[in-house]
Design brief:
This protein is of the alpha/beta class. The chain has 23 helices and nine strands. It has helices spanning about 35-40, 75-85, 105-115, 130-145, 155-165, 185-190, 220-230, 240-250, 255-265, 270-280, 280-285, 300-305, 315-320, 340-355, 370-375, 385-405, 415-430, 440-455, 460-475, 480-495, 500-515, 525-540, 540-559; strands at about 65, 95-100, 120-125, 170-180, 195-200, 210-215, 330, 355-360, 365. Strand 4 (about 170-180), helix 6 and strand 5 form a beta-alpha-beta unit. Helix 16 (about 385-405) packs antiparallel against helix 17. It is elongated and about 115 Å long. The relative contact order is 0.06.
Length: about 550
């Protein structure tokens, strides 16, 4: 039996042609020139007349906007900077607000744009979709300006929107989370007037298209204000510890919002949240709330950013290594042993471009402390935070410190470099337990402590020497030359602090081990004997000091 087929409705005979006179029968051959007839040929129903005409000039007379605002605090200076930047009339004005993921770029853009006087204020989320997302957003703008366009293909709706924007200047587009400047270049090239605000994690690459405005973290008062408002949204709550939570989160907007929302929903106090963050960091970094956006968590946002960097070798390793240092003023020279200069420079440049680190243009780098905490927290389900990769990065961070510390810390010309490395040595050893120390960790601790002894900082020096000795004994045994040096150094630190009761037994043990393991006339044994004699002298025990001095002198003259 011959199957039945539904007949399509015939194309209406009075469908208008274009001004160029292309007829409906010419079909898709005219698609490159004609915005009407290709649709008419395939239509199963007649479109409303307004679908075949440009969007009217007065389409936005009553105002068109899809931008709303949520809870927003602070940012007075940044809002003023945006107003100033967009004050110039005439040609298209483009500004790009850039910063670390989660710093609050979108919230700033929405709050500012919602209060603007332009007749058209339209938000387009670009994300990874690039030009496709821009076209989709423009198509939605076209439908908002002219609802009758809904039957047209999306690409023709987008073209109508661009044509309207090109002919008017009372409009503002917010292009949110632009991944690459090239994604929006085709649009900017076609609109001579109006206002475009871009938010992006990309700090570089905008010099051809837009002036940039860097957005930093909240100041402490703003962060506490945001946390408290969310926490008390449904009624009074005990906010004790809110300031400590905000400080631990580095005053990063999304992290503060995430923490406050978690406390609100679960009934957790700020103090308890701090404890949970310390004990289960991986869980808390990924914790969302019911009704919240599961994609908008600190862990998820930075995971997506690192996905974009996987094609650049070393970026992940570099970020995990930087996580073990102090967040500010990390000397670039500290990283020189990591890779060849071109490879290292490219990796640093990529992390700077995506706002993951900041180049301070003085030979140092800065990284947000919360990003460091996340990069130090192992997660077997995150390829960027595998436990073995984090362990390797910790050990590499120690090796780089050991290699960079000057050998002769007693020379004044090395003191500037020593001072620049101290905070990073302290951070490295603070962020993990001594059982993870390596020989490189112990070496760096020895150098740092020796410098501190010379500067009179005895308490931290003693602590560092103690940890170094423990590590050498665990890894190398009690008789290894490096262990003997560590024991001697600890004794010297105790003597410098006036604690001869601890110094002398250590000196005596060190001398006995040097003479047994090395040789009584080995240079290390001679130094050890001289040090013990000095300790006896400091204790007023000249009866033991003088014979040791005499023996040491005789052996030195002979050897």
């Amino acid at each position: 039996m011959t199957p039945w087929h539904r007949r399509k409705r015939p194309v209406e005979a009075d469908i208008p042609t274009t001004a160029a006179g292309v007829s409906a029968t010419s079909g898709s051959n005219a698609a490159g020139r004609d915005l009407v007839n290709p649709v008419a040929v395939h239509a199963e129903y007649a479109l409303p007349p307004e679908a075949y005409a440009p969007i009217p000039d007065n389409a936005a007379a009553g105002g068109v906007s899809n931008i709303g605002t949520g809870l927003f605090v602070g940012r007075v200076d940044e809002l003023e900077a945006l107003e100033t930047a967009f004050a110039r009339p005439g040609e298209v004005v483009v500004r790009a607000v850039h910063g670390l993921g989660g710093v609050g770029k979108s919230a700033l853009a929405a709050n500012w744009a919602a209060r603007r006087p332009e007749k058209v204020r339209w938000w387009i989320t670009v994300d990874d979709a690039g030009g496709d997302a821009v076209d989709t957003g423009l198509a939605s703008l076209a439908r908002a300006l002219q609802p009758g366009l809904a039957g047209l293909p999306a690409e023709l709706q987008s073209e109508r929107a661009v044509a309207w924007l090109a002919g008017h200047d009372e409009w503002l587009l917010v292009l949110d989370n632009v991944e690459d400047p090239r994604h929006i270049r085709p649009l900017l090239d076609r609109v001579p007037g109006g206002r475009v605000l871009v938010t992006t994690r990309r700090a570089t690459g905008w010099h051809h298209q837009a002036a940039t405005i860097r957005l930093n973290v909240f100041d402490p008062a703003e962060a506490i204000d945001l946390f408290t408002r969310i926490l008390t949204h449904h009624g009074p709550r005990d906010a004790d510890g809110a300031a400590a939570v905000c400080e631990e989160l580095g005053h990063l907007a999304l992290a503060v919002e995430q923490a406050a929302a978690y406390c609100t929903e679960t009934g957790t106090s700020p103090r308890d949240y701090l404890d949970m963050l310390a004990r289960w960091p991986a869980t808390m970094f990924a914790a969302g709330t019911e009704g919240g956006d599961s994609e908008r968590t600190i862990a998820r946002i930075w995971h997506l950013t690192l996905n974009h960097l996987t094609n650049t070798p070393l970026t992940g390793d570099l970020l995990r290594i930087l996580a073990w240092y102090a967040p500010d003023n990390i000397p670039r020279t500290l990283l020189h042993g990591l890779a060849e200069p071109p490879q290292l420079a490219t990796a640093i440049g990529k992390l700077v471009a995506y706002s993951m680190i900041t180049d301070n243009h003085d030979g140092t780098l800065t990284i947000h402390r919360l990003l460091q905490a996340l990069a130090r927290t192992p997660d077997p389900n995150d390829p960027h935070r595998l436990p073995e990769a984090i362990d390797q990065a910790r050990d590499q961070a120690a090796a780089l410190l050991a290699d960079t510390f000057p050998a002769d810390v007693d020379r004044p010309e090395t003191w500037t470099q020593c001072r620049s490395l101290l905070p990073h040595t302290d951070a490295l050893t603070r962020h993990h337990t001594p059982d993870h120390d390596t020989a490189d960790t112990a070496h760096a601790l020895n150098r740092a402590a020796t410098y501190r002894i010379g500067q009179g900082a005895l308490a931290p020096a003693i602590h560092a020497f103690q940890r170094s000795l423990t590590t050498h004994e665990r890894l190398l045994g009690g008789d290894h030359p490096d262990t003997l040096v560590s024991r001697n150094n600890l004794a010297y630190a105790y003597e410098s602090a006036g604690d001869l009761g601890r110094a002398i037994p250590l000196y005596e043990q060190t001398l006995a081990d040097c003479e047994r393991v090395l040789d009584p006339e080995h240079p290390a044994a001679l130094v050890s004997r001289n040090n013990l004699a000095g300790a006896y002298e400091s204790a007023g025990d000249l009866g033991r000091a003088i014979p040791l001095y005499e023996q040491t002198l005789a052996d030195c003259e002979r050897v």
